[in-house]
Fold these 2 entries.
Entry 1:
Amino acid sequence: MPANNDNPLYEDLLKDYDDRLDHSGIRGERIARRLFELSQIGFVQVGGVKRPGYSNEEKEAKELVKKWLSEAGLAIREDGAGNLMARLEGKTEGAAIASGSHLDSVPSGGNFDGPLGVLSALEVAESWKESGYVPDKPYEVIIFSDEEGSRFNSGLTGSRAMTGAISRQEMEQLRDYNGETLEQVLKQYGSTLDAYEEAKRDLSDLELFVEVHIEQGKKLEKAAQPVGIVNGIAGPAWLEMEFIGEAGHAGNTPMIGRRDSLVTAAEFLQSIPDFPKTVSDTAVATVGKLEVFPNGANVIPEKVKLLVDIRDIIEETRDRLIDLLIEQAEKVAAKNDILLNIKLNTKIQPVPIAEDLQKQLAASLEKYGITPQYIPSGAGHDAMNLGRYLPVAMLFVRSKDGISHNPKEWSSLNDCVMGIHVLKDFIENKMKQ
């Protein structure tokens, strides 16, 4: 498979590949070629890809993967939300073990976030086909629509439909970046709002969902390990705060007695890093959005609006951190005679990964000489939605420099293939239980 000058992904992946990893029906060259072919869909000259959810590019990527799934012997169906489900029957009937991810991207996103999970799940089926292995239980590869949320500024659209975690009212209110409704977007895609709503699935036909994803962090890189175990998926909570003081002339208002909302907000912001570590080792809090009013160079700020993003993989400690930050904001506001308004506008339940599944993943890692690393996922994944209804597990593959959602996103082919070997071993062991 030749690589062009603009996108040398195929050659770069194979450059340092250790072909001793080609065994048990898993082939690195096939993964490299397929990552490259997907990278051509929505390729942008500045690097990376642009495949928004429900776009022609996302649909084209799905059609390509459907071809590979069919060639691997899986029976494919698609629901009204655009989710693909490809099934391979096992020796016995019953609930399936499933794996997969998504194919959409953020604008100028990387080539691994999503596609690696899809191709890992597919490669397990490919390996079985090559070796003549018939799984003990049914197996499914699932590809979710619009995971990233760049289309509607509201992610996990496909898995929310599959789990029924979105109301009809919310469906009707969604608008994309062009101002089009979800109904209009689905019609262009080849579906309808009614069909989207009917995508809710009886999840009792799934025993387990396991997802492979790039780490999007540096813990594996620092530990010099190719693959790690996700011990929980953090649930975000968003606190919207307004610090309201009094505007005044920057030159004529004495420093004593000022009611400066920005100075007060800054005092609160400076204190935030001290609180997460008091509740757990995995809690985090971030302010990435802040607005100042009236935002004039010579005006004392009257009002500051900010959003505190609070996450942890354990709901109890996440909620304790919320309370602590509210208490701190109230304390700082009262000290400076500033009015404070607080609104909790997002609160999503975290999804811990069961300890027995973590132990089984660890056994598969150790089989390949990998020292288990346990890593919380601060980002949301489709596995998070499924995890409220059935057991889920996740594997992280090492990310170079921790970069993601960026054309520089990179995981070596050695690490990608090692992740697939671990996934395959884990699934085959679960098939026997």
Entry 2:
Amino acid sequence: MNLERGFVGRRPASVDGDGVDTEAPDRRRLVIILVIVAVLVAGALAVMLKSRGGAPEAPPAALPHITVLVPGRQAVTTSIATTGVIAAKRDMPVGVAGEGGLVRRVLVDAGDWVKAGQVLAIVDRQVQVQQTAQMSAQVASAKADARLAQIDLERSQKLVANGFVTQATIDQKTATRDAANARVKLAEAQLGEMSARLGRLDIRAPTSGLVLARMVEPGQIVMPSSGALFRIAMDGQLEMQARLAEGDLARLHVGSPAVVTPVGDSKGFKGEIWQMAPVIDSTSRQGTARIAVSYDPALRPGGFASAVVTGAAGVAPMLPESAVMSDQTGNFVFLVGSDDRVERRAVTVGDVNDKGVTITKGLSGDERVVESAGAFLNPGDRVLPVTKPAARAADTAR
């Protein structure tokens, strides 16, 4: 009892006679001072971090794991898909070479194969035959006159020694003989001309090949102004006239292989570019690449076809499409440097196909390229790179 009273009755030394704690202001001042010191220390740390370039690096366990691949360099080709029209490589129109006339017979039809010089159509020649006979008779008459003049000259030359014929007579008879021989040559030339005209009445194939079109029928009167009566594909050679953008034309060359597939057929026909357009259409910005193909019944001139042309082979890095990004400045990739920090690299993209994206400029092939997480990274970020095995990286590209 006395103990409790003694304990209750004791007053702390910091309490005055009125019951007020005299040490409370000191404690509050101490708390305020500690708070101010903590704020100053935090500010100093913030200034130090800012001057050093950012927040303290996260421990390795907190860094993001990023898959990277080393693309290397591999053989790549340029494959360009295009469309165009099938046509004869050399489409030769055949018309009337002579004076023409009434067509008696037409001996070939579209789709037939012909040889050089083969008669395609026969034109009536009754008048020309009679004229040729007349010329032959004139040649025979001129030759007879020439023989007679020669005999007369020889007889006179024998009489000169006896004084029965003067030298002037000999000269006159020699001139008569020479004129007769000249008339023979003239008649023969006229006969040759008439024979040539007679031969040109027949419409003949100028070259071997495939008859593409026939535009003449028996009973039709033809003349040089009638235009083409037949169209022949020389040697049956065909081509596809492919329309290509000027950028694609720059990636191809004469000899580039191609596979041509006509509309309505799944079979492809091998060919190659034999001629490149020397000019570009100023409106469409396109040019023509002429792809030579061998004849096949499925390839019909005038028909539509598609083609895949393979450009020049080369060696370049190839990446999966997920590794290549683009913005208003162009195409780029993210690399991971030797210090495991991310850096941006501008690249030039070449061919894009099912195998991946060919990089024509910007990479040497031995860099560590971020495979697919580029959208979540910024240049300067530190990461933990996980290198993808070369075989798997190639599988991804495929």
